[in-house]
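Sample entry as discussed:
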Amino acid sequence: MQQKSLKQFIYLSLAAAVATILLKFYAFYLTGSTGFFSDALESFVNLIGAIMALIMLTISAKPADKEHEYGHTKAEYFSSAIEGALIVLAALSIIRSAVPRIIEPTPLENLNTGLLFSLGASLINLVVALILIENGKKRNSIVLEADGKHLLTDVWTSAGVIVGILIVKLTGIYILDPIIAILVAINIIYTGYQLISRSASGLMDASISEEAIKKITSYLDSLKEKNIDYHSLMTRQAGQHMFISVHLLVPGWWTVKKGHDYADLIEQSIEDMFNVPVTVSTHIEPIDDPASMSDIGIYRQKKESNNKNKPST
């Protein structure tokens, strides 16, 4: 159900991309403006990015299998990385088209009509971008958020182009048109870098947000009054899915059943804190045994003697 809901937003992004491509390329056709061309080319990249997002959401929705026991949610990061790379390529194409216009400026035509079409495309992008970003954050989806931020960048790009073309119209300084296009391209490159960087971080098993970690630690700290402590809290984000593991320190005289029941309750409480898929794994240890402190973090500390503290068989 969650993935189906996300796909509806991608379909909205696809529709917006098609509409803005038609409007912006028509503005370029009417005016011959390199600035309008750069704006239209970015919208074309939006379309490719939205298609990639749809493909990756379909892959990430697949259930866990024998080869991928933790699921396929990291596929979302590939979408964001590919979109970032496409943005950079689009920016380089814009620069390549703009340089000859700097050397030999060209007069522009039908600027009033071109500006109206560009403004209409920008309004469509603004509405869709705000919807995608809001729902991407709410559902913790890097695909929606990346696509929304890309569209929002497109809005700022279009605003800059529109202002620049207005200046060209009022002053008749046509060399400003390719200069505007190059400035747009530099801004696009920066956006692409941000998307690629975030995707790389996710593929490297980045932790969940500080806000989410603070929510978890506040809850775990509240359990100390019940003589339940914790350590070795580790998290990672895989697309929408959050993975959390923690060691629970409980009184050594507790029965296995009592410790297990509390662990189940704690796991469920943490999972209920978030409106996204969450997997919580706990490990029960006796709070009064020094050996419980030998495995804080991902690596277990080596003991001086391998025979010490071994349970009898």
